[in-house]
Design a protein that fits this description.
3-stranded antiparallel beta sheet; Helicase, Ruva Protein, domain 3; Tetrahydropterin Synthase, Chain A; alpha+beta; 11 helices
Length: about 280
């Protein structure tokens, strides 16, 4: 007779993120000792880490840290949404974010090398992957700095951790408006801050497409310049933050909202898990 209960299996699954049968097997071998079973899952899983390298990590979560005029955003990725909400995976993401900030890491390579306990972030991620039997990776990290930084994390599903993360770096005193802009960015996903940031080759391509489309539609030759400019402006309005209609009041552009609030956004970052 098994010397553990269904509640023990559930507790081990929540702690480790491992599958039910793996948890049962580990508890069998550990005679019902949850901590020993957890360690068995880790040791057995380490043997299969290399086999998981080619798998796709389309789930996970985002974590943000803001302190001292600097904001850090990370995306920790896994294979399934079950693991993404597991206690152990969420705790790992929080610990990784802390380690990244403490080390002052600004990219994935330096983040993986950051100290984590007696080892490194890379080792901690490998251990977690071994326990849960899935590929786990630190996919992205971004850092912004300014006199003011706001962070916004959005849950796309009530039972999952945050899947969308935004950092906004700004100058000025109106932190509430900066936060509203961060929420706007999460919803409207701009690519650039201003038109000046859009690469010239992309603008040229948009003009080319606009002209070809207008000609296919049989627009008068004399009207083409105005039509092309209108469509290119539409592209800017869709992709550039300051040109977008503000989420809370679409009668105002984001640029106007920032002007009214007396603040200037100097940079922003938006992560969506798996995107």
């Amino acid at each position: 007779m098994a010397n553990y209960t269904a509640a023990d299996v559930k507790a081990l699954r929540e702690k480790s993120g491992a599958g039910m049968m793996d948890c049962k097997s580990a508890l069998d071998e550990a005679n019902g000792d949850i901590e020993k079973a957890f360690e068995l899952l880790r040791l057995k899983g380490l043997k299969g880490v290399s086999k998981r390298e080619g798998r796709t990590t389309s789930n996970g979560l985002v974590v943000a840290r803001v302190a001292g005029g600097k904001g850090t955003l990370i995306e920790l990725a896994c294979e399934t949404d079950f693991v993404a909400k597991a206690e152990g995976f969420v705790a790992l993401a929080e610990a990784v974010a802390d380690a990244v900030v403490a080390a002052g890491a600004t990219d994935v390579e330096s983040a993986l090398a950051a100290p984590h306990g007696s080892s490194t972030v890379a080792d901690a991620i490998t251990d977690q992957a071994a326990i849960i039997g899935e590929k786990v990776e630190l996919r992205r990290i971004a850092v912004v700095s300014a006199s003011g930084v706001d962070a916004y994390l959005h849950r796309t599903s009530r039972d999952l951790p945050p899947q969308v993360g935004v950092l906004v770096a700004f100058e000025g005193a109106d932190a509430a408006t900066a936060h509203d802009v961060a929420v706007h960015i999460a919803a409207f996903s701009p690519t650039y801050l201003t038109r000046d940031e859009v690469p010239a080759e992309i603008v040229a391509k948009e003009r080319e497409i606009a002209e070809a489309t207008a000609r296919d539609e049989g627009k008068p030759e004399a009207a083409l310049p105005k039509i092309i400019e209108g469509r290119v402006n539409g592209f800017f309005k869709e992709t550039c933050l300051v040109d977008q209609d503000f989420a809370k009041d679409n009668k105002l552009s984001v640029a106007k909202v920032l002007e009214n609030a007396g603040i200037q956004v100097t940079a922003f970052v938006r992560f969506r898990v798996g995107a």
